Amino acid sequence: MPAFPVSLPLEFTLGCADGKPGNAAELFESVSQNIKVKRYSEALNDLNAAIETDPALSEAYFHRASILRQLCRYEESEKSYKKFLELKPGNSIGEKELSQLRQAQSALETAFSLFDSRDHTKGLEYLDKVVLVFSPACSKAKILKAKLLLAAKYYSSVISETGFILKEDENNLEALLLRGQAYYYLADHDVAQRHYQKGLRLDPEHSELKKAYFGLKNLLKKTKSAEDNVNKGKLRLAVEDYKGALALDPDHLAHNVHLHLGLCKVLVKLGRGKDASISCSEALNIDGELLEALVQRGEAKLLTEDWEGAVDDLKSAAQKSPQDMNIREALMRAEKALKMSKRKDWYKILGVSKTSSVAEIKRAYKKLALQWHPDKNVDNREEAEAQFREIAAAYEVLGDDEKRAKYDRGEDIEDMGMGGGGFNPFGGGGGQQFTFTFDGGFPGGFGGGGFGFNF
């Protein structure tokens, strides 16, 4: 069905109330031309003037009703249809279009309700399949469609729809606002700002345009402050600025992905691995292909000693960018850390730090060896032997400068108790026997059975 009838129904061309068919034909030709170039007001003015001259000109009521319906001026349209049907009772075309009017009116009301209830998809269906079919020139419906598209995050479609509206009316404030918001959520901030500024030049007190414009200015200011503080080495201030910028608009994903990444990088530098990992995960939730976020999260997991997680992230990053040597080096560090985490921590077993001196290590060993000597733990001899074996193995490594250096570098060391059978302080099973005798022996006669200590 054409948007507007380009020719009258046959019954309309057979006569006019003033008896001058030619005048009516000229009138409706002028109306048709105005409609083609979307000069609806001029078309309505012509029809209103014709009706004022001849109140019985039925086809003028029909055309006026049709134009008003398509502009979604439904109440006025319905009155004109009813007047037409009074003059042409039972006219099928008039009755059909009156029915279409009522369908469009009901669908538009429903679409507004669906917008309020956030059912964006169904709201768009009502507009596209009913309202804009019967009322294609309805500006309210077009603006509502742009709002629904924006709420559904179809930003490119918003730009397209508002482009059509602004082509007809370049000063439409709602269209300028919606188009600016679409560019804003695509992180095209310069273009968004230009739309807001144009709208504010037309109406400096427009509340929504002011809110959008100054909200954008504040976001850009906070973002720049965070970046400047990073460059100045003021990392803690940068953290606060990034958090402040993120709090301004949690829905601005296209921009927030970079804020989360920036925050993650700063937190890694500050050694706050847990917080950094959360920030990078937020960035990856927005853009799962963001390579730098994956790398930084791997670094953050190294800080929290999540060795396997770090290896997984950095391995994924290396697969995405196999030529990046920095990523490969980070992966090697993570794999080494994972490997080291699976071996026994001899420092922990002896209860000493990695910076302890040889003398401190020796004292710790003596104390624990006395505590866990099997002859002193008759009631729990099996546990004591296991503990004693661990203590002796730890000292075998940490008490030797060369072995200790290799251990600290993460190198493999054979025959030092790491493989489960290379070291046996008891000498059983045919292995090497170790005899240790503390100065003065053990109080109470300990030292029998091959457990003497000699330093």
Automatic annotation (TrEMBL):
<dbReference type="InterPro" id="IPR018253">
    <property type="entry name" value="DnaJ_domain_CS"/>
</dbReference>
<keyword id="KW-0732">Signal</keyword>
<feature type="repeat" description="TPR">
    <location>
        <begin position="173"/>
        <end position="206"/>
    </location>
</feature>
<keyword id="KW-0256">Endoplasmic reticulum</keyword>
<dbReference type="InterPro" id="IPR011990">
    <property type="entry name" value="TPR-like_helical_dom_sf"/>
</dbReference>
<dbReference type="Pfam" id="PF07719">
    <property type="entry name" value="TPR_2"/>
</dbReference>
<keyword id="KW-0677">Repeat</keyword>
<dbReference type="GO" id="GO:0005788">
    <property type="term" value="C:endoplasmic reticulum lumen"/>
</dbReference>
<dbReference type="InterPro" id="IPR013105">
    <property type="entry name" value="TPR_2"/>
</dbReference>
<dbReference type="InterPro" id="IPR036869">
    <property type="entry name" value="J_dom_sf"/>
</dbReference>
<dbReference type="InterPro" id="IPR019734">
    <property type="entry name" value="TPR_rpt"/>
</dbReference>
<protein>
    <recommendedName>
        <fullName>J domain-containing protein</fullName>
    </recommendedName>
</protein>
<feature type="repeat" description="TPR">
    <location>
        <begin position="58"/>
        <end position="91"/>
    </location>
</feature>
<dbReference type="InterPro" id="IPR001623">
    <property type="entry name" value="DnaJ_domain"/>
</dbReference>
<keyword id="KW-0802">TPR repeat</keyword>
<feature type="domain" description="J">
    <location>
        <begin position="345"/>
        <end position="411"/>
    </location>
</feature>
<dbReference type="Pfam" id="PF00226">
    <property type="entry name" value="DnaJ"/>
</dbReference>
